[in-house]
Amino acid sequence: MEGKRGEQMDYEFIRVARDQAVGIITLHRPEVLNALNLKLVDELVEALENMDRDDSVRTIVLTGNEKAFAAGADIDEMADETAISMLLKDQFTVWDRIATINKPIIAAVSGYVLGGGCELMMNCDIVIASETTKIGQPEINLGVMPGAGGTQRLTKMVGKVKAMEMLLTGSPISAEEALRYGLVNKVVPVEMYLQEAVTLAKKIAAKPPLAVRLIKKSVLKAIDNPLSEGLAYERNCFYLLFASEDQTEGMRAFVEKRKPKFTGR
Questions:
Q1: What are phi and psi of 27, to 5 degrees?
Q2: CATH code for position 248
Q3: Which UniProt keywords apply (predicted)?
Q4: Is the pTM of this model over 0.85?
C-alpha cells in the first residue's frame, strides 16, 4: 500500500496512502497513543475532504496502529483552558465536516479507542476491530464529558442504559462486547484488522459510486429524521439513480448475465 508521491510530506500527524481505489489514512502520533490534538484533526479532515473530491478514490479506510486507534484528546492542549477560551476556540466545529464526507469511511481499530478516539470511530460508517480493542468514553475521570458527539452517537448506537453505564463510569468495553452492542461490525485477530478493512473497502469500491453515495446519505438520514421523511428521501434517491449510466449498465449486465462495469456516471 503505497502513498501518492509527495502526499505524505504535507502532513505532520497523519499518513496517507492508496491501495487501488481505497484511500488509507493512518493517525500517526504513536508516542502519545495517537492522542488527537487540534492539528491532527485539521489534517485528518483535510485529507478526508481531498479524498472525497478525488474520483479515483471510492472508499476510505481510517486507522491507527495495533496499540491505539486513538486514546483520546490531547489533554495537554486543554488543561489550562477556560470556558471562554474553549468557547472561542470552538474546536469541535471541524468535526462536523467529517459527517459531510460522501464516500464510505471504514474504521480499522485496535488497542485503545477512547474518548475522542471513540467519537472519531463513531463518525465512521463501518468498523473492523481487532480482538485487543478497548472502547470507551472516560472523560468523566477528568471532570468533564464528551464534546465531539460522544453522548449523542453512543446513545443512538448502544441505547440509553448502556450509554449511561459507559459514560458515567468511564469504563471501557471489549471488542466482543462492542460487537454485541453494534458498535463494531466485525472482530478479527490483531494481525488481520487492517487488511480486513481494506478488503471490505475494495469490495464496496467495486460497486456503483452514485448508488454507494446515496445509500450512505439515506442511512444517515434515517438516524436523525422521522420514518416518513426518511422514506421520502430514499424514494427520491431511488428515482434519481435511474438518470445514471451505472443504472443502465447494471440492469443490462444483469439481463445479459455478465459482470457490470461501473463508472460513477
A1: -65, 135
A2: 1.10.12.10
A3: Lyase
A4: yes
